[in-house]
Design goal:
With about 325 residues, the chain is α/β, with parallel strands linked by helices. It has one domain: Rossmann fold. Helix content is about 50%, strand content about 15%. The protein is built from 14 helices and 8 strands. Helix 4 crosses helix 10 and helix 9 packs parallel to helix 11. The longest helix has 29 residues. The radius of gyration is 19 Å and the shape is globular. About 40% of the residues are buried. Bound molecules: S-adenosylmethionine. S-adenosylmethionine (SAM) binds next to helix 1.
C-alpha cells in the first residue's frame, strides 16, 4: 500500500478533531491544536461557521434518511474516532493517578496530546511511534506552528510491518520496568493479523505486567465474505471514502484467544455503541456511535522477559 495514503488518514483524523472543536453542536472532543496539523485550506475550512453548520445539518439529514445507509455508517465510524481519543485520555488520566509513568502512542499520526495535555505531561514520558513519512510531516507542521516539543517527548520512526517495536523502544529512553500505557488507536485496521499478533507478543514479553494497551478494532464481520452483501458493500464504501484499504478486523472470540496467547487479559471491552453510551447526548451532540468499531483495554499478565510457554516449562 502507498505509505502516503496512511499519512492522509492521520490528517483526516485531525480535520475531524478540528471540526468537533469548532462546532457548537458537539462537546465530544476539544483540540485547539488540530488545525495546526492540517493543510492551510482545511484549517481555514474547519473554522468556517457556514461549513460547520452545513456539516451538522448533513449529519442530521443522514440520520433520518434511509437512502443514505452507507454514508450514515461512515459518519458513525467517524464518531468512534473522536470517542476513542476522548476515552483513551480518560483512561490515561486515571492510570497516571495510579502510577503510570510512560505513555506510548503507536501510530500517533497528528495526535496533539503532547501540546494539549500539559497537565498530564508533567508526570510521564511520551513516546510517539509512527511511519517515518507521517512523523516527518508532523514535525514540519510543529515547526510551521512554532510549537515547542517538550523535552520528555520522544519521536521514534518505525514501520510496524518491517521492524520490531521492542527493538525501537530498547534503542530509546524507554524503561520497560516502569508502568506504561500504550494508546494504539486507528491502526489495527491497516495491519495484517500476524503483525498485530507479533507486536502483542513482543510487548508482553518485554514489559509483562507493566503494560496496558487501549486500542480500537474493526468488527470481523466486515471481512467475512460469507455474511450479508450489505457488509461487503459498506467495506467498499469505506474504501472509496478514504482510499485506504481496511484489511483487518476481529470477532470478539478470536480477539480473546489472541490476547490469551499473547499474554494479555481484557480489562474492559466496549462493543460498538457501548463506548458512546459512556457519554451523555449533550456531549455527543451531532455525533452518533457506530456498531462496527470496537474498543479494548488490555493488560499484560506474564512476567516480563518470559512467555507463557517458558513460564509453564519452568513450573
Ligand atoms: C488513522 S491514523 C490514526 C492516528 C492517531 N492514532 C489517531 O487516532 O488520531 C493511522 C496512523 O497509523 C500509522 N500507521 C499505519 N500503518 C503503520 C505502520 N505499518 N507502521 C507505523 N505506523 C503506521 C499512520 O502513519 C497513521 O499515523
Amino acid at each position: 500500500m502507498a505509505r502516503d495514503s496512511l499519512k492522509r488518514s492521520a490528517i483526516a483524523v485531525a480535520f475531524l478533531r478540528a471540526i468537533a472543536t469548532n462546532s457548537s453542536d458537539t462537546k465530544l472532543f476539544e483540540d485547539p491544536y488540530a488545525e495546526f496539523f492540517l493543510p492551510k485550506r482545511y484549517g481555514w475550512l474547519a473554522k468556517r461557521e457556514r461549513f460547520l453548520k452545513r456539516f451538522a445539518r448533513r449529519v442530521e439529514i443522514m440520520e433520518s434518511n434511509s437512502q443514505t445507509r452507507y454514508r450514515r455508517q461512515f459518519w458513525r465510524i467517524m464518531t468512534q474516532v473522536l470517542l476513542r481519543a476522548r476515552y483513551t485520555e480518560e483512561v490515561l488520566h486515571n492510570r497516571i493517578l495510579e502510577g503510570v509513568k510512560q505513555y506510548i502512542i503507536l501510530g500517533a499520526g497528528m495526535d496533539t496530546f503532547i501540546f494539549r495535555r500539559t497537565d498530564l505531561l508533567q508526570s510521564i514520558r511520551v513516546f510517539e511511534l509512527d511511519l517515518p513519512s507521517t512523523q516527518q510531516l508532523k514535525l514540519r507542521r510543529v515547526e510551521r506552528a512554532h510549537l515547542d516539543v517538550p523535552s520528555n517527548v520522544y519521536f521514534l520512526p518505525i514501520d510496524f510491518e518491517k521492524s520490531s517495536v521492542v527493538d525501537v523502544l530498547k534503542a530509546s529512553e524507554f524503561d520497560p520496568k516502569l508502568p506504561t500505557l500504550i494508546g494504539w488507536n486507528g491502526v489495527t485496521y491497516y495491519l495484517p493479523k500476524k503483525v498485530i499478533a507479533s507486536m502483542l507478543r513482543e510487548l508482553s514479553d518485554y514489559m509483562g505486567e507493566n503494560v496496558e494497551i487501549v486500542f480500537d478494532y474493526a468488527d470481523g464481520r466486515l471481512f467475512n465474505r460469507s455474511l450479508s452483501r450489505w457488509w461487503q458493500k459498506l467495506l467498499r464504501y469505506l474504501y472509496r471514502q478514504t482510499r485506504e484499504p481496511l484489511i483487518t478486523g476481529f470477532d470478539l472470540e478470536e480477539l480473546e484467544s489472541l490476547l490469551e496467547e499473547s499474554g494479555f487479559t481484557m480489562v474492559k471491552h466496549c462493543a460498538g455503541k457501548e463506548l458512546g453510551d459512556l457519554y451523555s447526548r449533550e456531549v455527543l451532540g451531532i455525533f452518533q456511535p457506530s456498531k462496527f468499531m470496537h474498543f479494548a483495554h488490555i493488560k499484560g499478565v506474564c512476567s516480563a522477559g518470559k512467555s507463557d510457554t517458558e513460564i509453564n516449562n519452568v513450573a
